[in-house]
Fold Phosphotriesterase-related protein.
Amino acid sequence: MKGAIRTVLGDRFAIEGVAYMHEHLILDSPLIADRFPHIHLHDVVAAVAEVARCRVAGATLVLEAMPMSAGRDVVRLAEVARRAEVDIVAATGLHHDRYYGPRHWTNFVSIDELADLFVADLVDGIDAFDYTGPIVRRTSHRAGVVKVATSGSSLDDRDRRNLQAVGQASVRTGAPVLTHCEEGKGGLEQVARLTELGVPASAIVLSHVDKSDDPGYLVALAESGAVLEFDQSLREWEAGVNSRTVRSTLLLLEHGFASSIVLGTDGARRTLWHELGGAPGLAWLASHLPSVLRAAGVGDDDLDLLLRGNAERVLRWRTVHASGSG
Ligand SMILES: [Zn+2]
């Protein structure tokens, strides 16, 4: 259905509470377990409890940002959505090369083949095995965004190829695009390439850009028409109004870009999770960040846009004229 927000348990038309716009609840691949154990998230019980804390603090929607075949598990995500009673938006697309490695099959297929798989995830349902084996068993759980990662301030061959496949999938379906900006960089190059491919800038969410503290860059990103996703506040929760997220937010508000910001935790690190013995816990975004932003001078209307309204607008699929899976 067009104009809706696609979650793993069905389409929605509104977000009632706080939207967590770049999250990690399940990250479970052999590669992650081996090379990145600090972000290895495999426990549904812990995820349900952590997300339930977010819900108590006001969250109603969580965007899970791991795309296909790199540790995503849509069956477990649907279980978390049901048990914690939050809407979860899943991603398709591809992440950074470090989550696949040079021998991964996604490096050896065509752009069209990739785009077809993204579209199938968005329109038909995500494979229960997440494209890790020869059997594909599509679930009823569909992706709501298509993700692409680039590797820095300039695009390499892999970046360009994946941007093209992701751009195609977004244009064919009307699904919004979520990007990974490595160290916050590369956002302008991503927007330039995706808009060339026909994706409206207003349907692009640029993740991690508050890792950059270049004011000119952040303002230029907002001027491009894309939405900026700020997610450094949990890492700097003790910094209060001096955190990069808060400083970047104030900068954009000064320039009139209240409609260009969404917030997330990028909380993949186990040390950020309350349920795994870390701090401050993912709920902090909904329970504490609003009062930090208020203390920094952000008004209630802007706060509603940052926490909810902008996410609701950008997650709605656009109307497309051609058939989605053609
Ligand atoms: Zn992430």
